[in-house]
Amino acid sequence: MGQVTQYTIRRYTLDDAATIARHRVEMFRDMGEVPTEELARDLLGKSTSALAVLLADGSYVGWFAIDTGGNVIAGAGVHIKLQLPRISHGHVRVEHSPVPLAVNVYTEPQWRGKGIARALMRELLRWASEQRTDRVVLHASNAGRPLYESLGFHSTNEMRWFVPGTNG
Ligand SMILES: CC(C)(COP(=O)(O)OP(=O)(O)OC[C@H]1O[C@@H](n2cnc3c(N)ncnc32)[C@H](O)[C@@H]1OP(=O)(O)O)[C@@H](O)C(=O)NCCC(=O)NCCS
What we know:
By secondary structure, this protein is α+β, with helices and mostly antiparallel strands. Helix content is 33%, strand content 23%. The protein is built from four helices and seven strands; from the N terminus they run βααβββββαβα. It has helices spanning 17-30, 37-57, 116-129, 145-150, and strands spanning 7-11, 60-67, 72-81, 86-87, 94-95, 99-107, 137-138. The protein has a five-stranded mixed beta sheet with strand order 1-2-3-6-7, with helices on both faces. Strands 4-5 form a two-stranded antiparallel sheet. α1 packs across α2 (37-57). The longest helix has 21 residues, at 37-57. The chain binds coenzyme A. Residues 27, 30-31, 74, 105-107, 112-118, 140-141, 143-144, 146-147, 150 line the site of coenzyme A.
């Protein structure tokens, strides 16, 4: 019989900004987008401050997985963003609910491949199903894409344009 991975899932509290920010930095590092420690520190500090504000005003929620020793081993968050009115995906009404953007999905390397991110995303999608919203959006990393696709996410038409001269 295979070994069972033991962990529990809990909602973020108002004190979790620094840990979520650390996940955010490590997530971008794993995606190859953090070339220097100086940038990592800057991102960590600014993310901690920004997340503390969003957690406090209720526009950021999420979940941690906790091991039996009480350590945070993974997390998944939602930034709830206001949007302009849109036609609902069933084309039957005008929808004006905020849209949850799933962010900061991260599992500590030694805990990967055990279904923890999947369990956190299921929690997130269960939460979303109980909200006044019709969708969840996210930007997938290569590592995350198979997970999201298996949960029913599909690619959309988002495009991106960088303002000339802003890459310095
Ligand atoms: C992406 C990430 C969160 C997945 O975490 P995890 O806890 O290992 O994921 P799970 O064990 O729940 O696996 C979920 C699915 O991901 C895919 N997956 C997981 N590990 C994989 C691997 N080594 N190779 C290919 N696919 C893999 C599988 O589809 C898997 O589903 P399955 O177990 O039913 O086959 C983790 O790899 C991570 O933190 N990566 C760095 C940060 C990042 O890219 N985050 C996502 C940002 S959008």
